[in-house]
Amino acid sequence: MKKYYPIKRGFLKKTVAYVKAVDDVSLYVNEGETFGLVGESGCGKSTLGKSLLRAIEPSGGSIRFRDRHDELVDVMDLDYKGLRDIRRNMQMVFQDPYSSLNPRMTVLNIIGEPLICNKIARGEELRERVKYLMEVVGLNSRHLERYPHAFSGGQRQRIGIARALATNPKFLVCDEAVSALDVSIQAQIINLFQDLQNEFNLSYLFISHDLGVIQHISDRVGVMYVGKMVEMASTEELFANPKHPYTEALLSAKPIPNPRLKKERIILRGEVANPANPPSGCYFHPRCPYAQEICKQQAPEFKEISSGHHVACHLANELELKGAVGI
Ligand SMILES: Nc1ncnc2c1ncn2[C@@H]1O[C@H](COP(=O)(O)OP(=O)(O)OP(=O)(O)O)[C@@H](O)[C@H]1O
Asked: Residue limits of the ABC transporter domain (predicted)?
C-alpha cells in the first residue's frame, strides 16, 4: 500500500513534492483477529486505515478481502457499485464520539443511516434492527429517538460502534476509537470491542498511539515510523523481545502499573522526520541511539527474523534491546 499526498504550491497549484504518508506497507489481518497499529502522531496510521477501506484513494498497492461468500475480492479493482457493496463488510469507527455524530440526527437515524443507504431496511424493520444494535452495544433501546447531546462520551462511542455494525461487517478499522475517552470508560469500550469480536467473529485493525491499549487488545502488532512499517510481530513477542530501536523507545515510554519496578525511559533525539523530505538511509537514523554508518546510507529491508517477526533494521540481529518492563 502506498499513499502519497501531493504538496501543491503557487498560483497554478503545481505539485512540487509528495508527503509519503504510507510508503510500501504490507500487512494482513486474519479472520477474528485484532491487528494493532501503533506509532507517533503523523506516522501514517490513519492514512493506512482509510486507504484500506478506500475511504481515501491509495496511490498504489493492492487490497485483498475475503467476503462473506468466501471469495477473495480485489478491492482496488472495484467500481463505485462494487465498492458500495464491499463497504457493507468493512466499516470504520472514529476517534471523536463528539464530532463524528451529526448533532441534528436522532440515534435511530444515525445508526440506521447505513441500512437506509444500502437499502437493507426501512420503516418498522429499521426500527427493530436499530433497537437490536443498541442493545448489542449496551445502550437502552428506548432511547432511540434521542439526540447525541443527551449521551455521555462513552455512550456516544457505543452509538458510533452500533452504526459501524449496522450492515453486519466482517472487518472494522478502529481509528483511535478509545483515545478521546476517560480511562475507566476506555476499559469498558475495549471490553465491548472484545465481546463483539467474540460474538460476531470480527476482525479489527486497531489504530492507537497508546501502547497499553494496543498490548491489551491486539493479537499482532505493527509499528509504523514515517510512513513505513518498521516492526511487526505477535503482541507477546513484540513487547517482550522488540528488535527495532524505535519500538524499544516507545516501550520505554509506556507507563507501568507497578511503581516499584524501575525502568529507564529512552528519550529520543530530535523530532519525527518530515515525510515530505525524509532523511537518507533508515528514516530513524538521526534519532537512533545505536545508528551506524550503514544506517545513514542504506534503507533497511523489512525482513522476517524469526517466525512471524519482521523488522526493518540493519542491526536487528546485533542489538540486545529492552522489552516492556513488568509484562
Ligand atoms: N489530506 C492530506 N494532505 C496532505 N498531507 C496529509 C493529509 N492527511 C495527512 N497528511 C500527512 O500525512 C502524514 C500521515 O498522517 P496520518 O494522519 O495518517 O498520521 P497518523 O499516524 O494517523 O497521525 P495522527 O495520530 O496524528 O492522526 C502526516 O505527515 C500528515 O501531515
From this structure: 7-251
